[in-house]
Input
Amino acid sequence: MSALLQIEGLGARYGDFQALFDVSFEIAEGELFALVGANGAGKSTTMQVLSGAIRASAGQVRFGGRDITAMPDFERARLGIGLVPEGRRLFPTLSVEENLLVGAATRRRGPWDLRSVYAAFPLLQERRRRTAANLSGGEQQMVAIGRALMGNPQLILMDEVSLGLAPIVVDQVYACLPAMREAGATVLLVEQDLSRTLAVADRVACMLEGRLVLAGSSTELTREAVTEAYFGVRARGAH
Amino acid sequence: MTYVNALVQGIMLGGIFALAASGLSLMYGVMRIANLAHGDLMVLGAYVCALVATSLGVPLPLAALASMATLGTAGWLLQRLALDRAMRLGEMAPLLVTFGLSVVIPNVLLQIFTNNSRTISIGSLGTASFRMSSAVSVGWFPLLTLVIAVLVLGSLQLFLQRTQLGRIIRATSDDTRTVRLMGVDSRMVFGLASAASLATVALAGSLYAMRQGGITPFEGQSLVLFAFEAVIIGGLGSLWGTLLGGMVLGIAQAIGAVISPDLPLLTGHLVFLAVLAARPQGILGRRLA
Amino acid sequence: MTTVSSQRAVGTPRVRRGSSASSVAAAAVLALLVGAAALPYVVDPGYTSQLVKLFYLVTLASMWNLLAGYAGMVSIGQQAYIGLGAYGIFVFNDRGVDVWSATVLSALVVALVAWPVSYLAFRLRGGYFAVGTWVIAEVVRLVIVRFDQLGAGHGRGIETITSDPLVRRAYTYWLALAVMVAALIGVYALLRSRLGLDMQATRDNEVAAVSLGVRVTATKRMVFVLAAAGCAAAGAVICISGLGVADPGAIFGVQYSAFMIFMVVIGGIGTLEGPIVGALLYFALDQYLSQSGVWYLVILGVVAIVVALYLPRGLWGTFAHRTGFAVFALRYRVAQPEPEPGSAGRAADPAADAHDVAVTGPSRTGGEHK
Output
């Protein structure tokens, strides 16, 4: 399988603060790649650099073999990088259906349109006229996923989709994943919750303090190894 | 009763205020820019319309359309060349830029056209009227402007609610950063909103001048106040509220004129201040200014 | 958090407000002021009358800068208070008060008026607030011109004032100078005070300021009232130097707001010296260009737009930012002591950000980022 996304030596900063140091990894087409790490490890920053919301200060991002490091965010979306943002970020004054329709602004062709999204998420069809601001957290998360799908992306970035949701709701969200993968999407999943992530991912990478400290397929990595990398127990002395 | 007549006149005057204010609402709604040059742009639109009509001999409706096209293009350029940059600098910069424009535009017009009224004649349509009752007479042209205002506002509302582009514009207004992540070039949306805003402003200015029989360079200084007042009275975030606000303002001014010829401006402003004091979110408003 | 001094042998960093350069500049300003006060004894009253205009321009510019540059409130309605200050002279002078005392009374009364007005104006924010201030100015004008005792729509003169023109012009000059100095000292003192710190915190990040207990609205209200008083005093000066008001439309005109904005934007918004620089520039342009009629307004407008877009700190502001220099010392600086004994502490590298006093430790794990 070819690499859909290649990241090499990525660095990023917020003013004086360096958030990412020399991050490199690859995602193959059709994979579900999980990026885990504690709060502040740099996972969301990586997502933001990938989606184009912030600029990399160093390194390169290649998508489908093409260098997109300097490409603005909206062009990346049209190129096929879809985002389910951290915190959902639905359009509050728009209805569920309108939020989904805006997702199609990438004007890309593919299996996902309003009908197929409603087929995959019947709950959304029930709620289609409701204003986005009046939805529960779990419902909002589903709308956010549906909205990203409406853009028919090749690569879907899912940023902390379980954040702030009850476990049973998180189960429902994760239940969407098989349908997405079946339709051919490649997924980069960023999460704090280890157990679910390890269960669904093909490959896992762990970040700590802005660096990638562990990477491998979910079958070869043990739960313990990931946990240790997550907390940086082996890494350095205590702070 | 003359007060009933004033009510009717006020409602029709409100149509122009509302049309003028809708451009303001659009710009503020999408870009959070309060365009202080709004009134002067209306006046500019009127001058363009008058120029096209007299020097090119074009019939007035077409001249008004030409004015809309001209100012629409100017709006696009203004946004892309100046206001985009101003928005990135902070909340104050767009205000300073538009205020600067509100000084430049009327003074340039003054230099070119002098302070004498530039006439726009609509011939007999200007005075034609029909009687609704013994006390109330309705001018055909003021009624026409009200109808146009309602049509434009209605179309704008429909466009925003029912079309994909309208949805995208509303989404951009909600959350610019996220809409970009959906593949939307927000700068294009801003440019479009500015163009649409200035096009409606041109129409409002042209109709206003036609109604008056002419236009002078500094009238924009009052018009901008009326437009803002209409928006605040009606409530931010609601186009129909703007129509209502325009009418309330129009009625306030008309009643003031009945009481004494030097009162209309004062009564209008006082009603605005009263609404601001008693119900700051406006009649149909959903959020505070 | 570690401190820098752990590696320095001698002394700890000192936090100071001024630098030696700013002390020199301040002394120079003082000398200038003394010289200015002596002018009526030395030069022709024609010159001092011109300077009266400069002095009230500086006053107005400082007031607008206080509102917008420090408290973040863009007002295009200060002409309400300028006009009220001018008309206040008539009100008090008619009742036997001399015009000089009337200036102070006028300013006080306008401050009292501005207090309730602020409650109304503060219901709006941003651009709508700006327009609201303009509407209020219009209402004030429309109300004032209804009073015949105040000259109605055609203006009026001052009733009782010293008849000797030389004495009158000298007193007017000193009044204008005093008003300007009072305004500048007032703004300087305000900014160095706790209130000033609150204000700047609010300007920079209102949410954070509120969370720290800054009473945002009360602070803004105070600034609003003080700016109104300052503008009223300037308006009084304008009235006295013109021996009355020729046209209420002019004294209540929005062009005063335009001039104030030009001066502050071009001079440097948010600095103390900026409005002065802007006023000087505008004054110079006004002397030479006012004959060219309306084009100079257009030029000013275009320049203001260009400066607002491409040189947002203004002329002085850009210079001060690059060099860290200030005539009126406001910011705290960390003065690093010399490692060798015997030399006095000197100011830190002026190009460094003067308010960056906190020193962070070497290991920073993560932290809030979005």
